[in-house]
Amino acid sequence: MSGYCCCNVKQATLRIGVSTVIYGIISIIVTSIWVNDMISRPDKIKRINFLGNLIPTSSYITIGCILIFMSVVYLILACVMVYGHLSRNHRLIMPWLIWSYVTIFLVAVAALILLVINGRWNNSGEIIFVAQLELFLTMCVIVVRKFVSDLKEETGQEII
């Protein structure tokens, strides 16, 4: 197995899986607190003006619930991925890969929507953050995909 970032793909995949589990837990907690705060104090939400209309408060709560759902799915798939890594079963890692492809696409779409809603990026920090997030997710997918490919080679299965 080849190496990435001072470790081989097997170790890197395990680190990515464990990091994703930790991220999922933290994300669920933080987003739940955020949604609870919006529900209990809707007057404190900074509303965005989109094409002359203020976006309703319920839209922010809906977005928060979508983020919680995505975090729960990511957490579950990360746990399955870690188990797949430990049991050396590539089929248990594939759902995480597919969901990561979906996440990369959704982050790009969300960034474009924010650009349209705001009419501009508020600052260059937002552009840098989104670019780094997309790059990081893509690198994780590449490493995990290489590990899956190596597992398939070991078992003599066809590589797609």
Automatic annotation (TrEMBL):
Transmembrane intervals: 12-35, 60-84, 96-121, 127-144
PANTHER family: LP21121P-RELATED, PASIFLORA 1, ISOFORM A-RELATED
Keywords on record: Membrane, Transmembrane, Transmembrane helix
Originating species: Folsomia candida
Protein name: Lysosomal-associated transmembrane protein 4A
